[in-house]
Design brief:
heterodimer; A: alpha+beta; Arc Repressor Mutant, subunit A; SH3 type barrels; 4 domains; four-stranded antiparallel sheet; 13 strands; about 25% strand; B: alpha+beta; five-stranded antiparallel sheet; elongated
C-alpha cells in the first residue's frame, strides 16, 4: 500500500467516524484529500476499492438508503467500530499474555499478536513475563490448516484430496466443516462429508494438495450439541471387545511393556521367564508392539494374537 | 510487518499513544515491532491526517521531541478498532486450552482464566465466541508426576526421576534441576538440567515412573539455557545416522509420526523415508513393528540386524516354546 493511499484511507476512516449523518460519495470526495483530484469514474472505482479494503480489516461501514435521497450515505458508527472498554487485573493480564504466545505459526500467531496490540492500544496492560516457569506451544504445521480455519470461521464448505490411512491413492472429498481439533499433536477436521452423506473425521496431514472453499460463506450449519473431541477420539478398535493376552517376557527386559501390564508374575514361566498379562482389543495393534520387542517376548495366547505376531515377524524377514 | 498492515497498525498506534502519553520512541517501536525509523515515519504520516477541512486545527498533532511522543487532536480514533473474529478466536482458543491445564487449577489461576475469557467474549462479540468453540486443543490427561514436578519448580528443589526411555526401552534414574514446564502440542515436559547428560533436557511427564523431591536446592549451572522449543520438541542431531526405509501404504504412518529428513512418493502410495536416529535399537524395533509394511533400504548393517532379531524371535515360536 502506498503512503498516499494509507493517508487517504486513514482520512476516510476519520471522516466517516466523525460524521453524525451519513455522507454521500460526493460529500466524501470533497472531504477526503486524495479523492478530490480524480475524475468521476476513477473516483468511483477508487472509493469502491477503499470501502472493500476497510471492510477487510474489520471496519464496519454502514450504508444508508433513504427513500427521498438518490444516493446512498455512508458512515462508521462509533459503537460498532470501537473496542469496548476492558480492564484486566494483574492475574488476568498474566494468563492473557501466556495465551497470546501459544500459537506457533503465521496465521494464528499474527491474529493473537494483533489482538494483543489492540488491547494494549486500548489501555489494557498485558503481561508476557509473569508465568516464566511455564511455556505452552501449539503448532499448526499442516499446510491445510489456514484454509480450514477460515472455512470453519466463515461456515463455508471445502473440497480437498484426501488419502485414507493405509491407502495408496487420494480421493476428492467435499466437506461441510464443523470444527478443527488438535489431539496428541495432530490436527483433525470434523464435518459432514457430502459424498458419504454422514459425519467424518479427517487428519490434516493426510490432505494432499490445496483446500478449496466452495459455496457461500454462512452456508454450513453446525449441528447443536455435537462433541468434536469425542468424534476425533473415536477409533474403530474401541468397538472391539477388550481381551487379555498372556505373554512370556525375558527377565530384565521390556520395561515399557511391564509398565502398561495388568499383572507381572516374575519367573512364572517354565524357563524362568516372567509371565505378563496385557489387555488389548485389536490383535494387529498388539502384534506391532510385541513384534518390535523381538526375542525378548513371546505371546502364549490367545491364538489370533500369537499368529498376528508370527505374521509380523515373517514380514520383517521377507 | 508488510505495508498492507500499515493502516491497522496506525489505527492501533494512535490509541496507544493516547493511552500512554509521553511514551518513549524506542519503547513504542518495540511494542509495535518496528524500527525507530519506521515508527517516526508512521508518526509523520499520522501528522498529515485529520478531520475534513484539513486546516492545521483539524489535523492530528504529534510531537516526538527528545524521543518523548505526545499526541493530541485525535479523539475520533482514540479507541482501537474492535477485535476481528480471527484475533479474538486465537486468544479464546488458547485460553480455553489453558483452562484444561491443571497447573491453573492448582495455583488458583483458574478463576483468573474464567474472568479473562468472559471479558474477552464480551469485548469480541458473539461471532468470535461461537467460532472459538469450534477449535479445540486437547490436553493429555494430567500425568501423575505433575504435582511433584510443579512442587519442585515452585520450591526450587532438585528432583530424582525414574524415567522411561522408549528409544532404549530402559528405565533410568535421573537427577534433574527443574527449570520450566513446557507444554507442546498437548504433551507436558519438564525442562531441566540433567546431571546424567550434563545438559538441558526435556522429560515427558507421562514417562516419569517416579518423582522424588530431594532436599538439595535446584542449582542449574550458568550455561543452562532454556531450549528453543519453537521449532518443535524433537530435533534429531545432524550427527545421528541417516536411515532409509521403504514403506507400503499401510506403513505411511511412519512419515506422519517421526520427523523425517526426506519423504519421497514412490507411486501406489508407497514412500521412501529418510530419517535420523541416535539409537539403532529403536530402529530395529521400528522395522520389526512394520513387518511386511516396511523394509530397511540402508544401511545394510541395520537391515541385517532386523533380520537377525526377527529370526531369533521366530525361533521361539518354532521351537515349541509354547509348552509353558
Amino acid at each position: 500500500m502506498s503512503r498516499r493511499k494509507t493517508e487517504r484511507l486513514l482520512n476516510l476512516v476519520i471522516c466517516l467516524l466523525a460524521t453524525r449523518r451519513p455522507l454521500s460519495a460526493e460529500q466524501i470526495r470533497h472531504a477526503v484529500p486524495g479523492y478530490d483530484r480524480e475524475g468521476d469514474e476513477a473516483f468511483q472505482r477508487m472509493f469502491e476499492r477503499d470501502k472493500n479494503e476497510l471492510r477487510e480489516i474489520g471496519i464496519p461501514i454502514e450504508v444508508h438508503k433513504d427513500p427521498w435521497e438518490e444516493d446512498p450515505g455512508y458512515r462508521i458508527v462509533r459503537q460498532a467500530y470501537e473496542l469496548p472498554e476492558i480492564t484486566l487485573e494483574p492475574d488476568e493480564a498474566a494468563v492473557l499474555g501466556l495465551a497470546a504466545q501459544v500459537w506457533q505459526r503465521a496465521s494464528l500467531a499474527e491474529a493473537a499478536g494483533g489482538a494483543l496490540l489492540k488491547l494494549r492500544a486500548g489501555g489494557v496492560e498485558t503481561d508476557e513475563s509473569a508465568v516464566g516457569s511455564l511455556e505452552l506451544r501449539v503448532d499448526t504445521r499442516d499446510p491445510a490448516f489456514p484454509a480450514l480455519w477460515e472455512a470453519v470461521r466463515d461456515r463455508r464448505a471445502v473440497r480437498f484430496d484426501y488419502r485414507t490411512a493405509g491407502s495408496g491413492t487420494a480421493a476428492t472429498r467435499t466437506l461441510e466443516p464443523w470444527g478443527v481439533v488438535s489431539r496428541r499433536g495432530r490436527w483433525y477436521v470434523v464435518g459432514h462429508d457430502r459424498g458419504r452423506g454422514e459425519h467424518r473425521v479427517f487428519r490434516l496431514s493426510r490432505i494432499t494438495g490445496p483446500v478449496t472453499p466452495i459455496g457461500r460463506p454462512g452456508e454450513v450449519k453446525v449441528p447443536p450439541g455435537i462433541d468434536l473431541r469425542e468424534m476425533v477420539g473415536w477409533r474403530d478398535d474401541l468397538a472391539l471387545p477388550e481381551r487379555v493376552a498372556l505373554l512370556r517376557v525375558r527377565p530384565g527386559t521390556c520395561q515399557g511393556l511391564r509398565q502398561l501390564a495388568q499383572a507381572v508374575r516374575p519367573g512364572g514361566g517354565a524357563d524362568g521367564w516372567d509371565e505378563v498379562d496385557v489387555s488389548f482389543s485389536d490383535p494387529e495393534r498388539l502384534a506391532g508392539w510385541i513384534a518390535s520387542l523381538g526375542d525378548d517376548v513371546e505371546v502364549s495366547g490367545p491364538p489370533d494374537a500369537r499368529d498376528a505376531v508370527i505374521r509380523r515377524l515373517k514380514g520383517a524377514l521377507a | 510487518m508488510s505495508s498492507t498492515d500499515r493502516l491497522p497498525r496506525l489505527l492501533a498506534l494512535v490509541p496507544y499513544l493516547m493511552s500512554h502519553p509521553g511514551a518513549q520512541v524506542p519503547e513504542v517501536a518495540k511494542v509495535f515491532g518496528l524500527t525507530e525509523k519506521q515508527l517516526i515515519d508512521d508518526l509523520q504520516l499520522v501528522w498529515m491526517c485529520g478531520l475534513p477541512g484539513h486546516t492545521p486545527g483539524d489535523l492530528i498533532d504529534v510531537s516526538w521531541d527528545g524521543g518523548e511522543i505526545l499526541i493530541d487532536n485525535a479523539d475520533t480514533i482514540a479507541r482501537p478498532l474492535r477485535l476481528a473474529v480471527d484475533e479474538a478466536s486465537a486468544l479464546l482458543v488458547a485460553l480455553r486450552m489453558l483452562l484444561e491445564f491443571p497447573q491453573f487449577a492448582e495455583v488458583g489461576d483458574h478463576d483468573a482464566l474464567a474472568r479473562v475469557i468472559a471479558k474477552l467474549e464480551r469485548a469480541a462479540g458473539e461471532g468470535a465466541a461461537a467460532v472459538s468453540s469450534l477449535v479445540a486443543v486437547e490436553m493429555d490427561a494430567a500425568p501423575d508426576a505433575l504435582a511433584a514436578v510443579n512442587e519442585g519448580l515452585r520450591a526450587g528443589r532438585r528432583l530424582s526421576l525414574s524415567y522411561y526411555v522408549p528409544g532404549r526401552d530402559e528405565v533410568t534414574p535421573r537427577e534433574v534441576d527443574p527449570m520450566r514446564l513446557v507444554v507442546a502440542d498437548g504433551r507436558s515436559y519438564l525442562e531441566g538440567w540433567c546431571y546424567r547428560a550434563d545438559a538441558v533436557r526435556l522429560f515427558r511427564l507421562d514417562r516419569m515412573l517416579e518423582v522424588r523431591i530431594l532436599p538439595e536446592a535446584a542449582d542449574p549451572p550458568a550455561e543452562a539455557e532454556p531450549l528453543d522449543v519453537a521449532r518443535g520438541v524433537f530435533r534429531p542431531s545432524a550427527t545421528d545416522e541417516l536411515v532409509e526405509l521403504e514403506v507400503t501404504p499401510a506403513g505411511r504412518w511412519v512419515a506422519e509420526y517421526y520427523p523425517c529428513e526426506e519423504v519421497t512418493e514412490l507411486g501406489d502410495g508407497r514412500l521412501r523415508v529418510t530419517l535420523r536416529a541416535r539409537d539403532q535399537g529403536w530402529l530395529v524395533r521400528l522395522a520389526l513393528r512394520l513387518g511386511d509394511t516396511g523394509r530397511v533400504v540402508a544401511p545394510a548393517s541395520l537391515a541385517d540386524a532386523v533380520k537377525e532379531r526377527a529370526c531369533a524371535a521366530l525361533a521361539r515360536y518354532e521351537n515349541g516354546a509354547d509348552v509353558g
